[in-house]
Specification:
The complex is a heterodimer of chains A (330) and B (250). Chain A has a domain of 220 residues. Chain A is mostly helical. Chain A has a two-stranded antiparallel sheet with strand order 1-2. In chain B, the strands form two sheets. Chain B has a six-stranded mixed sheet, with helices on both faces. Chain B has a four-stranded antiparallel sheet with strand order 2-1-4-5, covered by helices on one side. In chain B, a hairpin with a 2-residue loop joins strand 1 and strand 2. Chain B is globular. The two termini of chain B are 18 Å apart. Classes of the chains: A mainly alpha (330), B alpha/beta (250). Chains A and B meet through helix 8 and helix 9 of A and helix 2, helix 3 and helix 4 of B.
Chain lengths: 330, 250
């Protein structure tokens, strides 16, 4: 990689992202920024397993929901800070990924995907039925304590912005470290051809289990944050199939198995969706969804490698650069 | 010389089909053994059984005295048995270097060390100038070379090559034969499945002939080409081996 360009670009990007809430005070705009950061983070978490190792899960809502419920139960019933609840939720999700992975990884391809959908749906039903511990279908609101940073409650949207920005930074740095290590090579190898990977000594079941745990942990952190942000939880929100879809979609549109793919995908999709909603949503209901769907189809038809593919192609055409090429190149 | 690989009484059925029946053979250390026979004779299945991709119904396989039936493919590889596939399975989107590094990580998880080892294996098979090429853009012979380099990077003691010469032109076959010779000279024990008789005669010291899942003959290349049953089942009555090359061992 051309280090002399990436580092200044990264610094500039960080600077912009850091000062953004100081310049923009519009609540609607800040809300969109927070959603972009949140879904980028969920996409980054999903991408570790779904992108690099090509295990297309559509059940990551399971971990989002487990994270959300763990921290909320701890907070509402035991007054434990969501900061602690967040980590606890991550651990619960990690542990839950073990039996779920044990079952689902017996299947490959579309069968794996269907099995993951089923696990998330099953968990949603469990939380709908268990009214004693988790409020059943009505859900619950989070007690509003005003400004209470130790309880992850803030008066300004800007604070939430920085929290989720921090999460995204953690997700990206974990992805970067994994991508550059032996683990990254093993994940891509499994995604390319699991038999060939096994033949050269890659313990595919163990690698898949480990990356699933990391992915589940991170997804659960997003769940906690989301509940704290909207002050409400119910099974339909926490285990929403939309979460699973978004996680996969932003990565696929942005560039599956690339560090920045989920971020680029989210920026495009969330911005488009929010703008279409505000322009068209009030006058002609439904049109914004149609346009959104058409943009999706266009990307998948013409850019099956995602927008990152476009960026790296342009990068390679840049004069004076040798054509290097492929994914996971050192 | 010690026994590197001992296969005894190996059998595998797929439904009503007896893919491999009571197969036994021994490969001594640093020997090159060829497994030949008509299509469907059970050669590739034998490879799958030895390397853990299929579980044998009965029988045993021991590598340097260790029983390996029942182990998963990655464990078999960790014990020093590496294989290539009949249809090359490169990690297409990765570069040649990354492909081979993935193999090298088995012995050392350090990226820098893996890169050095990978470069050495790539140079050994003669792919150095394609180091940065995506594996999917390689020609057939280069993909086979890549598979060998990737297998070599796992530092095997026994190498199982499944039809590495299929689909190559005569000049490429000569290159491949030379490469197998080089691997043998490096001290590797090699089991090779091949149809190209010219190549087998050049590289193998010992040949096992399979037909319908059973071993029908075993011996030196010269004994095999004169064996009436092998001629009937596989070589065909018109087969005349060019004299002078039969005992050539690279």
């Amino acid at each position: 990689m051309a280090v002399r360009w990436t580092i200044p670009a990264l610094l500039l990007l960080s600077a912009i992202v850091l000062v953004l809430p100081q310049l923009v005070h519009n609540a609607f705009a800040l809300d969109i920024f927070i959603r972009i950061l949140l879904f980028s983070f969920i996409g980054v978490a999903w991408n570790l397993m779904g992108g690099y190792a090509r295990q297309l899960s559509l059940g990551h809502a399971a971990y989002f929901g487990l994270g959300a419920y763990t921290s909320t139960i701890m907070q509402v019933d035991f007054s434990i800070s969501p900061w602690i609840g967040m980590i606890a939720g991550g651990i619960v999700a990690m542990l839950a990924s073990l039996p779920i992975g044990w079952l689902c990884f017996r299947l490959r391809g579309p069968y794996f995907t269907i099995a993951t959908i089923a696990t998330a749906q099953a968990l949603m039903l469990v939380f709908l039925k268990f009214r004693d511990i988790a409020w059943g279908a009505e859900g619950t609101t989070i007690p509003n304590l005003g400004s209470s940073p130790l309880m992850m409650q803030f008066e300004t949207k800007a604070s939430y912005y920085y929290v989720v920005l921090g999460l995204l930074a953690i997700g990206l740095s974990i992805t970067y470290r994994i991508e550059k290590s032996w683990m990254g090579y093993y994940l891509v190898a499994i995604g390319e051809d699991e038999d060939a990977a096994e033949a050269i000594g890659v313990n595919a079941p163990r690698i898949k289990r480990d990356i699933y745990m990391i992915s589940a942990f991170l997804t659960a952190l997003a769940g906690t944050f989301y509940v704290q942000y909207i002050y409400f939880i119910d099974p339909a929100t926490a285990f929403s199939f939309n979460i699973s879809i978004e996680a996969a979609l932003v990565s696929i549109v942005g560039g599956i198995g690339t560090l920045w793919g989920p971020v680029i995908g989210t920026v495009l999709l969330e911005t488009t969706s929010a703008l279409l909603q505000s322009w068209l949503g009030s006058t002609t209901g439904g049109v914004q969804l149609t346009v959104y769907a058409m943009i999706l189809m266009a990307v998948i038809l013409w850019r099956p490698t995602g927008l990152m593919g476009l960026v790296s192609e342009a990068w390679q055409r840049y004069p004076g650069r040798k054509p290097a090429g492929a994914r996971a190149a050192p | 010389m010690t026994d590197a690989l001992v296969v005894s009484g190996l059998s595998k059925r797929f439904g009503g089909l007896r893919a491999v029946q009571d197969l036994s053979f021994t490969v001594r250390e640093n020997e090159t053994l060829a497994l030949i026979g008509p299509n469907g004779a059970g050669k590739t299945t034998s490879f799958h059984l030895i390397t853990g991709f299929h579980r044998a119904d009965t029988g045993s396989v021991s590598a340097f005295g260790r029983e390996i039936v029942g182990l998963r493919p990655h464990d078999v590889c960790a014990l020093g048995l590496a294989r290539t596939f009949q249809v090359a399975k490169p990690f297409g989107a990765m570069t040649v270097l990354s492909n081979v590094m993935t193999g090298a990580f088995l012995r050392d998880r350090h990226v820098g060390i893996a890169r050095d080892k990978a470069r050495e294996a790539i140079a050994f098979v003669g792919l150095s100038r394609h180091e940065a090429t995506a594996a999917k853009d390689l020609t057939t012979i280069d993909q086979r070379r890549l598979e060998m380099a990737r297998a070599l990077a796992t530092e095997p003691r026994i190498l199982l090559l499944d039809e590495v010469m299929a689909g190559l032109n005569p000049a490429e076959i000569d290159q491949a034969v030379a490469l197998v010779g080089k691997l043998s000279a490096r001290g590797l024990t090699i089991v090779i499945v091949e149809h190209v008789m010219r190549a087998i005669m050049a590289v193998a010291r010992h040949i096992v002939v399979l037909d319908h899942g059973q071993k029908i003959a075993e011996g030196s290349p010269r004994e095999i080409v004169e064996n009436p049953e092998v001629i009937r089942a596989y070589l065909g009555s018109g087969y005349v081996h060019a004299p002078g090359t039969g005992d050539a061992h690279a």
